[in-house]
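Before relying on records like the one below, remember that each one covers exactly one chain. Contacts with other chains, cofactors or solvent are not represented anywhere in the record.
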Amino acid sequence: MKIVHVIARLNVGGAALSVLELAAGQRRRGHDVLVVAGTIPPGEASMEYVARELDVPYLRLPALKREVSLGADLEAVRALHRLLRARRPDVLHTHTSKAGTTGRLAAVLAGSARPKVVVHTFHGHVLSGYFDTTRERTFRVIERTLARVADRIVAVSDQVRNDLVQFGVAPRRKIVVVQYGFDLDSRLGSSGRRTEKRRLVGVEGDDFVIGWAGRLSEIKRPLDLVRTAARVRGSKLVIVGDGELNTSVLKLATELGIEDRVKIVGYVEDMGAWYSAFDAFLLTSANEGAPVVAIEALAAGIPVVATDAGGTRTVVDDGETGFLADVGDVEALAAHLEHLRDDPKLRATFGKEGAARMRERFSTERMVDDVEAVYAKILSR
């Protein structure tokens, strides 16, 4: 089978990683697979190196950008249209909003070259919580229209599916849930470096280290990370990543008098090694599709304290592998972290259970099986 995946950009994040893992798994099964990705904007780190590590062919499409730009967007549609006509894939599988828009429009324009299967995956969505009301309504109308082009819509969690139904994007019967899958052992293969990584961020002895990873953007509510850590006596907050709110995070840490307890590491290519440095992992997001960093943290044996946002509940089992709290409730998040700080046995129990459940729930082969079943059902019609 000839498959083309299109994603807005191969930046650091769960969407890009899952697409590359999916493409690699499909190639192992003998399929002809190409990943097409757009431009990575300034301030975001690239995961193109993962494509090389997994031996996944990818094509960079400069016109495909995150920002709305009529000229660039039209050029991206034209370029994808030319690609479809030249390559004649059996499957066009788009991922993320911009790639879903340009890719599905290209499929409409392809005529006889339209792939037999057109699928779009929502790894999350920008239909609420990201923009003002007018733009959110506009995006919902666009997604409802484009959903008619796709043969099937894929959501990465039950919560994402429920949101799509609620916002009228597509009827429930057209949406299938396919959870992420990763080669977790490979991702965490360099995890046994706790002392080294803790030393790099100035952690001494038994300091309780709270970890976080990702892009410091508004939807992640990184200021709540600082507010929460400030309430947890004897803790240090280690942020692996960067983003537009970097300065705001450091400023708030100074205002709260904990600047010596907050360390921003920046983007790294050995994230698997960093999880071992943490005693607990914290997520404060306002929305998540299915938080990959939480999957990886749990797989590394690190309990997770998180906001009950979007698909987080799909990953974190409240009271069994971690704790959940309402978005913005920094007092509850801090109380859960203090509970873990004061009970090493509970941390170990949660970590052991989380490691087992993540490997069972989020395997690459299961994800590839589920996606191929989606393709097969469309082809059999």
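The CA atoms of residues 220 and 285 lie 4 Å apart.
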